[in-house]
Amino acid sequence: MLLSALLVADPQRQVAELVAEQCSRMAERTAVAVNGQQTIATAQAQKIDMLILSLEIARPGPLDVIEAVEKMRPAPFVVATYRELGVPQMAHYGRLGVRDFLSQPIDATEIYRAASRHFNMPFRRHDRFYVAIDIKRPDGVVIGRTRDLSEGGLLMDAYYKASPGESWLIELALPDKKKPLRVRLHVLEVEGQPPASMIARAQFDRLRGEEHRRLVAFLASKAGQSTASPQRNPP
């Protein structure tokens, strides 16, 4: 299920368009605005479900924009983005109607996660594929096996106790005849407890450069095959 409409408001059009493109999988329609007046007019005309609002917006500023969209029925889910924001300011915006805050530069995965929490719907930024690969620690000990894999993370059968919030350095032996791909995982969710089987959902942390290119190339080779079941939601 998708949102009907999502609006990204940022004084830098290039930034707004980039974020809108990254979030295009979340909504049937996405729009951008570069000032407060445009934001209010677009929000009202398109009856948006979600607004990603830079607190640097002007003409008028963010307070006026928030006040205007909060009068809409139903009011959209407002996520504020900022470069610097003190706790008192954050609390003030929260009282006015802002439901979540993200620091800039924006990580699109965090937008998907915020929307999933608010709407209780599984939004996915990346396609995921059925892939069964052993997950090893750098010392070679197998700690799990992937159920599915995406550019942003994975779903795995965990052979050892896992807890949300843990950070693991792991290796994946991709079938490209190169050294194992080494990446850090951030555990997001865990189902089950020992001695029963455990299923963990984890996000890749700072996967960049050659390692990222290798993973993207591997997933591209799988693109012609069936993607993973939509009942689970890796990043």
Q: What does this protein structure show overall?
A:
The chain is α/β, with parallel strands linked by helices and 235 residues long. It folds into two domains: 3-119, Rossmann fold, CATH 3.40.50; 128-222, Thrombin, subunit H (Beta Barrel). 28% of the residues lie in helices and 32% in strands. It has six helices and twelve strands. The protein has helices at 13-22, 36-46, 62-70, 87-96, 108-119, 209-222; strands at residues 3-9, 27-33, 50-54, 77-82, 100-103, 128-130, 134-136, 142-150, 153-158, 167-172, 181-191, 198-205. The protein has a six-stranded antiparallel β-barrel with strand order 7-8-9-12-11-10. Strand 4 (77-82), helix 4 and strand 5 (100-103) form a beta-alpha-beta unit. The two termini are 17 Å apart. Mean pLDDT is 90; it is low at 226-235.
Short description:
The chain is α/β, with parallel strands linked by helices. It has helices at residues 13-22, 36-46, 62-70, 87-96, 108-119, 209-222, and strands at residues 3-9, 27-33, 50-54, 77-82, 100-103, 128-130, 134-136, 142-150, 153-158, 167-172, 181-191, 198-205.
The tally of helices reads 6
CATH architect. name of the largest domain: 3-Layer(aba) Sandwich
CATH class of the largest domain: Alpha Beta
Query: Widest sheet: strand order?
Result: 7-8-9-12-11-10
**Beta-strand share of residues:** 25-35%
Average pLDDT: 90
Query: What is the strand tally?
Result: 12
Kindly, what is the distance between the CA atoms of the first and last residues, rounded to a whole number of angstroms? 17 Å
Q: What is the molecular shape?
A: elongated
Q: Determine Rg (CA atoms, Å).
A: 20 Å
> CATH superfamily of the largest domain, called what?
Response regulator
Helix/strand/pairing category: alpha/beta
CATH T-level topology of the largest domain:
Rossmann fold
What is the number of domains?
2
What order do the helices and strands follow? EHEHEHEHEHEEEEEEEH
What is the helix content? 25-40%
Strand count, sense and barrel status of the largest sheet are: 6 strands, antiparallel, barrel
pLDDT below 50 for ≥5 consecutive residues: which ranges? Answer: 226-235
